[in-house]
Amino acid sequence: MKLQVIVADLPLKHTFTIAHQSRDVQETVIVKLEEDGIVGLGEATTNPFYGITVENMKASLEVARPIIESSLWDGPEQLWSMTKSMFTTNPFAQCALDMAAWDFYTKKLGVKLYEYLKLNPEDIPTTNFTIGIDTVEKMVEKMKEVDWPLYKIKLGTDDDMAIIRELRKHTDSVFRIDANCAWTADQAIEYSQELLDLNVEFMEQPLAKDDLQGMKKVFKHSKLPVIADESCIIESDVQKCSGLFHGINVKLVKAGGITPGLRMIYEAKSLGMKTMVGCMTESSVGISAIAHIAPLLDYVDMDGAMLLSKDIAKGVTITPEKVTFPDRPGIGALLL
To answer: Alpha-carbon distance 175 to 128, whole Å?
Structure first.
């Protein structure tokens, strides 16, 4: 087994702005595992908000290299457990490795990942298409550029409700809103009725991740479901979110990969919560991996590669109607 780490830049079609950062290019790290002609690919992007850089992802993977390149592991879950202690401060690098291990393992078996997991691709919900924070005029332009039945609107400004009112004038598509921790409990509750009237499906992470008392209030009084993002990073957070949120948004890079992500999804289901997986601004490597587990979900946000002006890979094809998987085993992604 050989480990290779590839660094690439992902240029965006538009400047992407959320409540705490803007970017025109996204750095990403591709993990490549190769043995006997079989190649597994995984991906994780850098993220300044979480302190994740190319350098510290590479460093974490180097620490794990002896185990990765040994013959001590037989499958991705075993590798994840064996290297867990080496990625305590870098779940993003752990995700890229875990994704590559799942890709390699299912390719070795000659099956697609969703087939191995016994999932039906017909059950995949429609992904939303994300509209980042911008001037209202630019946000309207972005919607018109990509005609989609479901938009996720990034908020966290002083004019959030005015933005939604204006965007609603230009489309009948369903909205989801993501405030990225920017609101107070009273704001979220007050906004929820009008957002419901404006055909918003749910609110994602309206409050700061540690504002548990505020979330109790929002959970009780909001007219809309609330979905946890920053409040649900790792497996132990799922239980904590029960009774505070109606559902969770699992980010594989934050959780440490597909292996813990699947456990989080099943635990949330057992607690009666809705499940969602969200993406970063990834290439078709990371997005293809998400697509394979998407049949498990109530909601999915896997538009990352659609936001790029140039992809570094090819994999699944996403339309509002369906997800088409390439006729290849594993996650089906190939580097270009």
So the answer is: 9
pLDDT tens digits, 55-70: 999 999 999 999 999 9
State residue 11's pLDDT score. 97
- What mean pLDDT comes out for the span 297-323? 97
Question: Other C-beta atoms within 10 Å of 71: how many?
Answer: 7
How far apart CA 206 and CA 187 sit, in angstroms, is 9
Sheet holding 247-251, edge to edge: 129-131, 150-154, 174-178, 200-204, 226-228, 247-251, 274-278, 299-301
**Residue 120 three-state SS:** coil
CA dihedral sign of residues 276, 280, 282, 285: negative
Q: Read off the pLDDT band of 117 (50, 70, 90).
A: very high
Report yes or no: 283 and 313 within 8 Å, Cβ to Cβ: yes
The side-by-side arrangement of strands in the sheet containing 21-35 is: 2-18, 21-35, 38-45
Helix (H, G, I), strand (E, B) or coil at 229: coil
Sign of CA dihedral 235, 86, 332, 9: positive
Q: How far apart are CA 102 and CA 13, in angstroms?
A: 30
Question: Do the Cβ atoms of 164 and 153 come closer than 8 Å?
Answer: yes
Answer whether residue 94 shows pLDDT above 80.
yes
Look at residues 135, 116, 133, 93 and name the one whose alpha carbon lies nearest to residue 329.
116
